[in-house]
Design a protein that fits this description.
Layout (H helix, E strand, L loop, with lengths): L4 E4 L14 H12 L3 E4 L9 H7 L5 E3 L4 E3 L6 E4 L6 H9 L4 E6 L2 E4 L4 H10 L5 E2 L10 E7 L5 H4 L7 E5 L2 E5 L5 H12 L6 E5 L5 H6 L2 E4 L5 H6 L2 E2 L7 H10 L3 H5 L1
Parallel strand pairs: 1-2, 1-12, 7-8, 12-13, 13-14
Antiparallel strand pairs: 3-4, 4-5, 6-7, 6-9, 9-11, 10-11
Helix pairs in contact: 1-9
Length: 265
């Protein structure tokens, strides 16, 4: 494989369930960087809970955050690109209020949520920034929304379908997310490939979630994790091991690491 760049999802791919990067994954990525491959993170997370891992790996590439709604500079953290989503807010809050669910609104200025939970507490711990607002979101004064996350605790395709004319919808097992139309990890990857003058054919993308499907389909080599759903696996060219078993490193070692002999030639 002639690979110049790899885009790596975080949760369920780079990270174990403990939110740690294994030594094996770290070493595999480090060797790839030493081969001259550009390594990028492409995640649904917001910047503040992406940057510490980016720094831990020692990356200097831009970060794709919030499923492609934001691209952040590696050095300054400044947003190089932001795609805001505009909904009929009154309708959105009316529809979500009728269902028992948590709503998390990611904006250019921080996080607004209906209620806190274990995940948000973790974000606060890692990102060192608490939500700007917790409570009835109809009373919150937010703007420049990058992503709406609706956590119903179960698949909610009937509810999410009501927003398909206004937004890009990503359905999850525990709810759904809304982005600006045509925004995805893939749309952000295309933007970065133009900047770095890299062809999609020279790119590997690896992930496990419904937010990864488009990038897995469109890059030269799409890789699904062993813990991915059948729908995600169907979009990929390869399926590697489970994220708890270093499936990321397994793929990199097997297909992307050049043998030491080839360095000499």
């Amino acid at each position: 494989m002639n690979v110049r760049a790899i885009f790596i999802d975080m949760d369920g791919t780079l990270l174990k369930a403990s939110n740690n990067i294994s030594c094996r994954n770290m070493e595999a990525i480090d060797r790839l960087i030493n081969q001259g491959v550009k390594v990028f993170l492409a995640t649904g997370r917001h910047y503040e809970v992406t940057a510490p891992y980016h720094k831990e790996i020692g990356l200097r590439t831009p970060m794709i955050c919030l499923n492609g709604a934001a691209i952040h500079d590696a050095e300054t953290g400044t947003a190089m690109q932001m795609k805001t989503v505009r909904l009929n807010e009154e309708r959105f809050h009316h529809l979500t209020a009728e269902n028992p669910c948590n709503v998390i609104i990611h904006t250019a200025n921080g996080l607004y949520c209906k209620e806190t939970n274990e995940e948000i507490d973790y974000w606060t711990k890692v990102g060192q920034i608490p939500p700007r607002y917790i409570g009835d979101l109809r009373q919150a004064n937010y703007q420049d929304v990058l992503k709406y996350s609706v956590r119903t605790g179960a698949p909610s395709a009937d509810l999410s379908a009501l927003f398909k004319k206004e937004a890009e919808v990503i359905d999850w097992n525990d709810g759904f997310e809304l982005l600006a139309p045509n925004v995805s990890k893939w749309s952000a990857i295309k933007s970065l490939l133009r900047t770095f003058r890299i062809s999609p054919n020279e790119v590997v993308a690896i992930g496990d979630g419904p937010n990864d499907i488009e990038m897995l389909r469109h890059v030269g080599t799409g890789v699904a994790m062993g813990n991915a759903s059948e729908e995600v696996k169907a979009a990929a060219d390869f399926v590697t091991g489970h994220h708890e078993n270093d499936g990321l490193a397994e793929f990199i070692e097997r297909y992307l690491h050049k043998s030491y002999e080839s360095y000499v030639i």
